[in-house]
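Structure tokens
________________
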Amino acid sequence: MRETLNEEFHYWWQASGEWVEPQNFRRGGTSGVIRHIPEHGPTLYIKRQEGHIFRSLRYPFGRPTCLREAQALERFQAMGFCVPALRFFAVRKKGTWHGVLVTETLPEGFISLENFYPSAQALALSDPERERIIKKMASTLANLHRQRWQHSSLMPKHIFIRLTKSEQEAEPVKVEIAFLDLERARRQPTAKRASTRDLHFMRKRLLFWSEEDWLIFDHSYRLAFR
């Protein structure tokens, strides 16, 4: 079993692809992500880390940060949130720590807020549709924070949205939210702490919303959070 795991680790470590997040040097090592397109199946994203570690009470001598991300992906999925499916994960120490995290691309139709709001689709939204998106964002984040989870990096490129037509008169357009990049996600001691930190971070980076949009978000969030 261990030999098989090592072979698979080596396979993903050597897999070819285009860098979508070039290797950055921090935390005492390197971390980067490539896009890998297999012959069959969905597009994959491979995160490779070498010496890129975090330390905690449980791991005082460090582990690759992709360990936390793999654990968060599994937990978010178990809680019912839409996140990339985890295809493979493993860490090993050979002189220094190495980690590989392989995830599938999000289901078809999802687009980051970074790309959605400047698009023609967003500009063509009616006021009720725009409001429905904001309210869905609010209820999704309130649900996450009620369970004391903090995403920690709520930037427009890490929040994805999918709009699909619905046959329900009350909801002609179905809104779905997905999250990416859970490397910094963590569970906080209280729901309020998770909420305060995430929303403060998001307000500084989500520049597409007007003051009126934020009022709608705040009201919907408070109703869902309590």
About this structure: The domain at 2-104 is CATH 3.30.200 (Phosphorylase Kinase; domain 1). The CA atoms of residues 17 and 36 lie 5 Å apart. Residues 127-146 form the longest helix (20 residues). The radius of gyration is 19 Å.
